[in-house]
C-alpha cells in the first residue's frame, strides 16, 4: 500500500535527491560545530550559504518537470508496522515553499554574514538556522502525517533556540518561552487531529487521505479533526488570538525575524491549510473558521500595527495581518471544493490562487523590509520611530528598499503587492455573491472588513516610510551618526526588491511555472484539462470595482495618516489589562498559583491524611465495585459448627482488640496486643495448623519483648487531642473499611469455587520424602518463597543493625 | 464457623484502621500488627476451616486440612515479624533523633 510503485511517476534514479534535500541541512548542522574549529570564523557563514544556495539550485532544476504536471515522490520505509514512512512528495505546492525556504534562506544567510558581529557565537547561530531549514523542508516535503508532525515540532524547537539566541537578555528568553508554549500547544492539538484523520482513513499518507476523502466526510470525528488541525495551523501562523507570540519573537536577531517570522515558519500553517483544503474544503465550518479568523486577523493586525513605535514590532503586526489575508483567501478558495467541477467554480479557485501568489509576494517584500529595519538598527542603534526621521538623505539606498517594500505591502502599482491586493478584493467581492454557507446574510461584511483592513495597512506603510525617512533628523537622539550600510548588507534586500518589481511586470511567468502546479495540488480532484490559473492582469479596466476600492484606500489612507495625531487616542480606549498579552500572562501565572494551591491543599505532609486518601480509595474502588455488582450474597449454610470454647476465643479477641483502642497506657497496649497474638495462635491450633501455632507463639513472644524494649525508650502514649470531626471521620473510615472487608470475605465464601489443588501435596511422602505436608511445601514444593523470606529477614536484620549503629546526625545521641 | 471468623476479621480490620489513622507512632505499628493478624486469619478462613485432619501424614487418615494456606501464612508471619521489628527500631531511632513520636509534630522537620 505504501510501495513506491504507486508514486512511480518520479524517476527512480533521481528520487533519492529529494530525501537528500531534507537531510543535507541536518548533516551540515551537525558538522558546523566540528568544522568551526578548523576554519576561520569568517567563513562559517559562507559555508552555510553555499549549502543553502546549492539546495536552492537543485530545487530550481525541478521547476520544468513540476510545471509539466509531474510529481516526484519517494517512499523510504521507516516504521512500517505503524504505517510511518519517510515519504517525500514534491509537487507544485511543496516546490513553492521549498524554493522560498532555500531561496530566502540563502539571502538571509548572506545578510547575516554582514549583520552578525564576529564576536558572536556564530556556529550556534548557523547550526540552529540549518536545523530550522531542514525541519521546514521536511514539513513541506513530507507526505506522511507523523513525519510532518515531527518536522513541525522541530521547527518550533529550532525557532525557540533562534529567538533566544541572545539568551543573556531577559526579553529574549521570555519571547522564546512564549512562542514555544503557544506553538507547541497548537502542535499537540494538531497531532490529535492527525490521529483522528488516521482513525477515519486508516492511512497516514496525505495523498491517500485525499484519494478517498468521501469515506471520511460523514465520520463523527471529521469535525473534531478539522478544528484540532486548524488550531495547529492558526497557532503556527500567528492567527487571532494566537498571534501574540510573534511580536515578542522580535527579540531574535533580525535575520531570524526576516527568515522565520516573515517568510517561512509562520507560513507552515498556511501550507497545512492549503495542503488539507482537498480534505476539509467542502465543509462550511472550515470555510468560516479559515475565512473568518483570517479576516479578523487581517483587520486586527493592521489596526494594531499603526500604534507601534518599534519598527520591528510594527512589521511583526503587519506580518500577522498579511498572514490573515492569505489565510482568508485560502478559506474563500475552499468554496470551490464544495461547488465541485463547474464553470463558475473557477471564479472561486482564483482566491486560492491569489493566496499562493500573495504568499510569494509577501515573502519578497517582507523579507526586504525586515532587512531594511535590520540595517537601520545596525547603523543607528535604534529602531524606535520616535527617534528616527529624515534619514532619506543619509541612507538613500536603504530608503529605496523601504519605499518599494512598503508600497508593495500597501498594494500600490508598480509592485507585486498591487496585483495580489487587487485579486484579494476581487475574491471578496465574488464570495459575497454566493448563497451557500449562509453567505447571503452576512457575506456583505467580507469586502467591507477587507477594505477597512487595507486602509490601516496603507496607513502603517506610510508610517514606516514617513516616520523613518522623512521629517527632521534628530541627531542628538541617535547613538551613531547616520550613514549608508555596507554593500554586503544591501545585496540581499536588493535581490528581493528586484523580485518585488519583476513579479509585477512578469506575473504570468511566475503564474505558469510556479503557481499553476500549486493550484493542481490544492485542487487535485479537478481534471487537469481545466485551466485553474487565471491570466494575471495589472489593469482590470476603469470600471472594475477593485480598482475603485484601491483608489479609495489610498485617499482615505492618506487622510488618516495626516490626521494620525487626532485619532490615535482611541488605542487607549481598550484597557491594558484586557489585552491578549496580559490575558496570556495572567493565565500562566494563575495556572501556576492554582496548581500550587491545589497541591498545597492535599499534600499536607501529614501521614494521617495520606492514610485517609488510601483508605478512601480502597473503599471507593473495592466497596464501590461490590455495591455496583451484586456479587455479595448471604447464605446461612455453615460448613462447620461452632463450639463453646471457640466462641470464647472469638470474644477474647474482640475484647482485646477493641481494648487497644481505649488503652490509656503503653503497657496495656502491649499486653492487649500480645493477647491478640496468642489468641491467633490458639485459633491455629483449632484450625489444625500445628506449625503455624508454633511459629505464631514464638513470633508473638519475641515481638512482645521487642515492644517492651522499645517502649523503655519511648514516652508514654499521650492522649490525642483532636477535633471532634477528625475523630468521627476516623471512626467512620475504620468501620467502613472493616465492613468492606467483611463483605468481601462473605462474597468469597459463598462464591462458586474451583476445587482445591492441595490434594497434590498429599503425595508429599512419595514426591519429597516428608510427612509434614506444610514443611514439604515450604522446603520442597515452594522453596523459592522460603528462600526469599529468609532474605527479607536478613535485610530486616541488617536494617535494624544499621539503624542502631548508625552515627546519629545532628542533635541525636547514639545508643547501643 | 466461617461466618463468625469473617465478622471477627472485619472487627480486627476496623480496629487496625483506626489505629493506623492515629498520630502516635507506636499505635500505628500495633495497628499494622493487628492488620496482619486479620489478614492471616482471612487467608486461613478462605482456605476452608477444619475440613479434615492435621496435615501430617501418618497421624490419622485423610482428608487433610488444606496445607497450602498454612504454608502461605507461615511465610507471611515471618515477613510481618521482620517488618514489625524494623519499624520498631525505626520508631525508636526517629524518637531519639527528633524527640517526638507524634506524626503531627514530626511534620515539617528539616530533613523531611
TrEMBL record, chain B:
Where in the cell? Cell membrane
The species is Ureibacillus thermosphaericus
User: Where does the source fall among the domains of life?
Assistant: Bacteria
* CC terms in the record's Gene Ontology section: plasma membrane
What is a single Pfam family found in this protein's UniProt entry?
Answer: Oxidored_q2
Name the family the entry cites: Belongs to the CPA3 antiporters (TC 2.A.63) subunit C family.
Name of protein? Multicomponent Na+:H+ antiporter subunit C
> Does the record bear Acetylation in its keywords?
no
Amino acid at each position: 500500500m505504501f510501495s513506491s510503485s504507486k508514486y512511480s511517476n518520479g524517476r527512480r534514479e533521481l528520487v533519492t535527491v529529494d530525501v537528500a534535500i531534507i537531510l543535507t541541512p541536518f548533516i551540515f548542522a551537525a558538522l558546523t560545530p566540528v568544522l568551526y574549529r578548523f576554519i576561520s570564523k569568517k567563513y562559517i557563514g559562507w559555508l552555510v550559504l553555499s549549502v543553502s544556495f546549492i539546495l536552492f539550485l537543485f530545487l530550481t532544476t525541478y521547476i520544468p518537470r513540476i510545471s509539466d504536471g509531474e510529481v516526484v515522490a519517494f517512499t523510504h520505509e521507516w516504521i512500517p508496522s505503524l504505517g510511518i514512512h519517510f515519504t517525500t512528495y514534491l509537487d507544485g505546492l511543496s516546490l513553492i515553499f521549498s524554493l522560498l525556504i532555500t531561496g530566502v534562506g540563502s539571502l538571509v544567510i548572506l545578510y547575516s554574514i554582514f549583520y552578525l558581529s564576529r564576536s558572536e557565537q556564530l556556529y550556534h547561530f548557523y547550526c540552529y538556522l540549518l536545523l530550522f531549514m531542514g525541519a521546514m523542508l521536511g514539513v513541506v516535503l513530507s507526505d506522511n502525517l507523523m513525519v510532518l508532525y515531527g518536522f513541525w515540532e522541530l521547527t518550533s524547537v529550532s525557532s525557540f533556540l533562534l529567538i533566544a539566541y541572545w539568551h543573556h537578555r531577559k526579553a529574549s528568553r521570555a519571547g522564546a518561552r512564549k512562542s514555544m508554549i503557544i506553538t507547541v500547544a497548537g502542535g499537540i492539538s494538531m497531532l490529535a487531529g492527525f490521529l483522528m484523520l488516521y482513525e477515519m482513513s486508516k492511512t497516514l499518507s496525505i495523498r491517500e487521505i485525499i484519494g478517498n476523502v468521501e469515506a471520511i466526510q460523514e465520520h463523527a470525528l471529521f469535525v473534531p479533526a478539522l478544528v484540532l488541525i486548524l488550531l495547529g495551523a492558526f497557532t503556527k501562523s500567528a492567527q487571532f488570538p494566537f498571534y501574540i507570540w510573534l511580536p515578542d519573537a522580535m527579540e531574535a536577531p533580525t535575520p531570524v525575524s526576516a527568515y522565520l517570522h516573515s517568510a517561512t515558519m509562520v507560513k507552515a500553517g498556511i501550507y497545512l491549510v492549503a495542503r488539507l483544503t482537498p480534505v476539509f474544503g467542502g465543509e462550511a465550518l472550515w470555510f468560516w473558521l479559515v475565512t473568518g479568523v483570517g479576516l479578523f486577523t487581517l483587520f486586527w493586525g493592521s489596526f494594531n500595527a499603526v500604534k507601534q513605535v518599534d519598527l520591528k514590532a510594527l512589521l511583526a503586526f503587519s506580518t500577522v495581518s498579511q498572514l490573515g489575508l492569505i489565510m482568508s483567501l485560502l478559506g474563500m478558495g475552499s468554496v470551490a471544493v464544495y461547488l465541485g467541477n463547474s464553470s463558475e467554480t473557477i471564479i472561486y479557485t482564483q482566491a486560492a490562487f491569489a493566496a499562493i501568489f500573495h504568499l510569494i509576494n509577501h515573502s519578497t517584500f517582507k523579507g526586504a523590509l525586515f532587512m531594511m529595519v535590520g540595517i537601520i538598527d545596525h547603523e543607528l542603534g535604534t529602531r524606535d520611530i520616535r527617534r528616527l526621521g529624515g534619514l532619506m538623505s543619509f541612507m538613500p539606498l536603504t530608503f529605496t528598499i523601504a519605499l518599494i517594500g512598503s508600497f508593495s505591502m500597501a498594494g500600490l502599482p508598480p509592485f507585486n503587492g498591487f496585483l495580489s491586493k487587487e485579486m484579494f478584493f476581487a475574491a471578496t467581492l465574488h464570495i459575497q455573491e454566493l448563497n451557500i454557507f449562509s453567505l447571503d446574510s452576512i457575506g456583505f461584511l467580507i469586502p467591507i472588513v477587507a477594505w477597512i483592513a487595507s486602509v490601516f495597512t496603507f496607513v502603517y506603510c506610510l508610517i514606516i516610510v514617513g516616520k523613518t525617512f522623512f521629517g527632521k533628523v534628530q541627531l542628538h537622539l541617535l547613538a551613531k551618526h547616520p550613514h549608508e550600510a555596507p554593500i554586503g548588507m544591501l545585496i540581499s534586500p536588493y535581490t528581493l526588491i528586484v523580485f518585488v518589481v519583476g513579479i509585477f511586470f512578469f506575473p504570468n511567468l511566475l503564474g505558469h511555472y510556479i503557481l499553476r502546479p500549486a493550484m493542481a495540488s490544492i485542487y487535485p480532484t479537478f481534471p487537469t484539462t481545466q485551466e485553474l490559473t487565471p491570466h494575471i492582469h495589472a489593469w482590470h479596466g476603469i470600471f472594475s470595482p477593485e480598482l475603485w476600492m484601491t483608489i479609495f484606500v489610498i485617499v482615505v489612507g492618506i487622510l488618516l495618516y495626516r490626521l494620525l495625531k487626532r485619532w490615535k487616542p482611541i488605542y487607549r480606549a481598550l484597557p491594558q489589562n484586557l489585552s491578549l498579552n496580559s490575558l496570556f500572562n495572567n493565565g500562566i501565572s494563575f495556572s501556576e498559583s492554582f496548581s500550587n494551591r491545589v497541591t498545597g491543599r492535599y499534600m499536607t505532609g501529614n501521614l494521617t491524611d495520606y492514610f485517609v486518601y488510601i483508605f478512601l480509595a480502597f473503599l471507593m474502588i473495592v466497596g464501590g465495585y461490590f455495591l455496583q455488582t451484586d456479587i455479595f450474597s448471604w447464605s446461612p449454610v455453615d460448613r462447620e459448627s461452632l463450639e463453646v470454647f471457640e466462641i470464647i476465643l472469638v470474644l477474647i479477641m474482640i475484647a482485646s482488640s477493641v481494648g487497644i483502642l481505649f488503652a490509656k497506657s503503653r503497657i496495656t497496649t502491649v499486653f492487649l496486643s500480645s493477647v491478640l497474638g496468642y489468641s491467633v495462635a490458639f485459633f491455629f491450633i483449632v484450625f489444625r495448623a500445628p506449625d503455624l501455632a508454633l511459629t505464631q507463639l514464638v513470633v508473638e513472644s519475641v515481638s512482645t519483648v521487642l515492644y517492651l524494649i522499645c517502649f523503655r525508650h519511648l514516652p508514654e502514649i499521650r492522649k490525642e487531642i483532636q477535633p471532634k470531626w477528625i475523630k468521627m471521620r476516623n471512626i467512620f473510615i475504620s468501620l467502613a473499611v472493616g465492613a468492606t472487608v467483611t463483605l468481601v470475605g462473605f462474597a468469597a465464601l459463598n462464591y462458586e469455587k474451583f476445587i482445591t489443588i492441595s490434594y497434590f501435596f498429599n503425595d508429599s511422602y512419595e514426591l519429597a520424602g516428608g510427612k509434614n505436608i506444610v514443611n514439604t511445601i515450604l522446603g520442597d514444593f515452594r522453596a523459592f518463597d522460603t528462600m526469599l523470606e529468609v532474605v527479607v529477614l536478613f535485610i530486616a536484620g541488617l536494617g535494624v543493625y544499621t539503624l542502631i549503629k548508625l552515627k546519629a546526625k545532628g542533635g541525636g545521641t547514639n545508643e547501643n | 464457623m466461617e461466618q463468625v471468623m469473617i465478622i471477627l476479621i472485619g472487627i480486627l480490620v476496623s480496629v487496625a484502621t483506626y489505629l493506623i489513622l492515629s498520630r502516635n507512632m507506636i499505635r500505628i505499628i500495633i495497628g499494622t500488627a493487628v492488620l496482619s493478624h486479620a489478614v492471616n486469619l482471612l487467608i486461613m478462613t478462605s482456605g476452608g476451616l477444619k475440613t479434615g485432619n492435621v496435615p501430617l501424614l501418618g497421624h490419622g487418615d485423610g482428608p487433610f486440612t488444606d496445607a497450602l494456606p498454612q504454608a502461605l501464612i507461615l511465610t507471611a508471619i515471618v515477613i510481618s515479624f521482620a517488618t514489625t521489628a524494623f519499624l520498631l527500631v525505626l520508631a525508636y531511632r526517629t524518637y531519639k533523633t527528633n524527640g517526638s513520636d507524634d506524626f503531627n509534630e514530626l511534620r515539617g522537620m528539616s530533613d523531611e
